[in-house]
Amino acid sequence: MFQRAVMLCVLLSLASGVLASERPNILFCLADDWGWPHAGVYGDPVVQTPTFDRLAREGALFDRAYISSPSCTPSRNAMLTGQQFYRLDQGANLHSSLDPKHPNFMFLLRDAGYEIGHWRKAWGPGDHTALGYTEHPCGPGSTFNKFFNQRDKDKPFCFWFGTSDPHRKYKKGSGAESGMDLAKVPVPSFYPDVPEVRSDIADYYWEVQRWDSDVAAAIELLEQAGELDNTIIVMTGDHGMPFPRCKGNLYDWGSRVPLAVRWGKQIKPGQRFDEFVSLTDLAPTFLEAAGVEVPEEMTGRSLVSVTTTGEDDAERGYVVYGRERHTPAQKMPSMDGYPSRAIRTDRWLLIMNSEPDRWPAGVATGSTHPYDSLADCDAGPTKTFLVEHQNDPEYAPFYALSFAQRPPIELYDCQADPDQINNLANDPEHAETVAELRGKLVEYLQSTGDPRFSEGDAPFDGYPYRAKYLKAYLEKNGY
User: Fold this and answer.
1) Angle at 268 between CA 265 and CA 269, to 5 degrees
2) Model's pTM, two decimal places?
3) Class of domain 22-317
4) Which CATH number fits domain 321-453+460-476: 3.40.47.10, 3.40.50.970, 3.40.50.2300, 3.30.1120.10?
5) Tens-of-pLDDT digits for all 479 residues of the chain?
6) Bridge partners of residue 26, in order along the sequence
7) How far is CA 34 from the centre of its chain?
C-alpha cells in the first residue's frame, strides 16, 4: 500500500544512520501557462503529450486540479509555500516578491538533507531579494542534466524543472507547419470558430509538445541512472493558457490545470481521481513523502491518503481560488488589480468580483501598463481578432465575454455549461444555490485569513509592481 510505504519512508528518515537514498527524490515539472484539458490523456484530439500520458498511465491522473491564483507569481508562491495566495502579502500579486517568513518546501527539504535546484522559470517573475531572500527560493539554477550528474549521490534531491513554454510569444503558424490538422482543433464556445483562432491554439499546442519532450529527456536521465522508481515525478502547469478569458480568469479555462503524479511501485498505476485538489497540496505532499513535518501555516492538504484509498480527512468536495493584481491594467494612474474569489464544486462555479466597476482584462485605453489596451490579457491573434471585430454583430458577444465588465456575483452550471458562459446568478430559481455557495466561500476565506474577508485592510493594490519595464514606462510618462 502507498500509505504504508510513506509511513516506512518517514520512519526510515527519522532513524539514526539511515541512508538518504531510502527517501524519494522529487522532480517537480512545472510548465508556464499550460492549462486543462490540453493533453492527450484528457481527450484532446490534436495535442500530443506522450510523456504526460505516460506519467498518468504509470501513476495517478487528476481530473480536477486547480491553482490558487491564475497568475504566474502568486500561483508559484502558493505552490512553494503550500498556502493560499492571499495569505502571502506582497506575494499575492504578479511581479512581486516573497517574504522568507512563509515556510518554503524547497528549503525545508534542504534542511532535512535534500539537495535542491531549479532550471529555467521556477519562482517568479519578480524580485525575490526585495523582502529578504538572499538566494533563489528554489535553490541554485542549472540544467537538470548538470545538477543530476554533479549532485551528492548520498543525498536525495528535489529539483524544480521549469520552462517558459507554452507562454507567449509564439511563432505564428508553427502548429500548422508541424502537421497539426487545424480542422480538429477544439475551439471553446466563448470564441468564434474562425481560422485565426484555430491556428493560434495550434501554435500553443506546439509549445506544449516541446515542453512534453523536455520532461521526457529528464525522465530518460532518471531511467538510465536507475533512479526512476525512487523518484516522485509531478507534471503540471501554473494556470490556464494565455488567451482571452483563460489566463488571469477564474473560469476553468484559466484556473484548472493538468496534473499527473508517478512514484514507482508506491502508487498503483492507472489511478484516476476526480476529487478536487489544489496545487497548494503539493508542498505538504512532498514534505510528508520525505518524512518532514508539515508546517501548520500550510493550507494545502497532503495527497498521500487520497492517492491510496480515495478517503482521507481532507474535504475535497470543492476547491477555492482567486486573484488580485495581475498587471496594472486599470485607468491611469491607478495600480489597482481585479480582486475576485471563486468556489468550484462538482456542479457549480460561483465567482465573487469585489470591484465590479473595474475591468477584468484592463481598460481598452489609458491603463498604467505600457501595452495599454486590455493589458491584463496576453497579446496574440485570438485577442487581436476579437478586438478588431468587437463592433461586428456576429462577433461582439465573444468580445464581451472576454473584455466587458462583470457583475458582483457569477454562477455557472458546469455540467450543463462546461465552458461557463451562461451566468445564472440573477435567476430566482438559483437564489438558494448562490446563497449557499457564497456562504461556504466566505466562511473558507475568513477561516484561512483572507484580508478581503477579515477585519482590517486589504492592501493588495498598494503593493509594488516590481517589473523593470513598468518603472521605465512610468518615468517616461511622468508618473
Assistant:
1) 100
2) 0.94
3) alpha beta
4) 3.30.1120.10
5) 333 333 334 333 333 233 445 799 999 999 999 999 999 999 999 999 999 999 999 999 999 999 999 999 999 999 999 999 999 999 999 999 999 999 999 999 999 999 999 999 999 999 999 999 999 999 999 999 999 999 999 999 999 999 999 999 999 999 999 999 999 999 999 999 999 999 999 999 999 999 999 999 999 999 999 999 999 999 999 999 999 999 999 999 999 999 999 998 888 899 999 999 999 999 999 999 999 999 999 999 999 777 756 666 677 899 999 999 999 999 988 999 999 999 999 999 999 999 999 999 999 998 888 888 999 999 999 999 999 999 999 999 999 999 999 999 999 999 999 999 999 999 999 999 999 999 999 999 999 999 999 877 899 999 999 998 887 887 777 76
6) 158, 232
7) 8
Q: Which three cell numbers stand for residue 18?
A: 539511515
Hey, where are the domains in the chain? 22-317, 321-453+460-476
Short-list 191, 181, 177, CA closest to 241: 191
Residue that has been written with the C-alpha cell 465552458 in this structure: 419
